[in-house]
Here is the input.
Amino acid sequence: MVDFNLDLKDTDCNDPVKIFYDRNPFTKDLGIRVKRETDDSISIMLKIKHRHTNLYGIAHGGVLMSIADATMGAACLNLNKRVVTLDFNMNLLKAVPETDEITARAQVLHNGGKTIVVECTIEDGAGHLCCKARSTMFVVGPLNEQK
Here is the structure.
């Protein structure tokens, strides 16, 4: 693993979670948008495009899992903790068609020194629950040393 320090000096944005995902090549390529709803709450949105779909014209499960993982990671980053995923499970409850926009939200269930347990819900544009995920994250260090 490479050394990591999130330098906020080179940006006009003061939200380290948004900066983290703006600089993340994978999530940037997916096209996610990070929205801070409150100081403690972050959501991640994605408009499902053709490149996100499978042969059935619905969002690929791997895309939905990636969004859930990123959202649960964002919840941990919001605690000033950098994490990697140790365990992940997901229930895919409803298909998401191309052109729909999904919103993912996470809730921290356990905030420990070494591990964090997080749940995530993904809803479609009409507010219907599409996916429910849970993950255990391993804390690798602080997001920002200055906090």
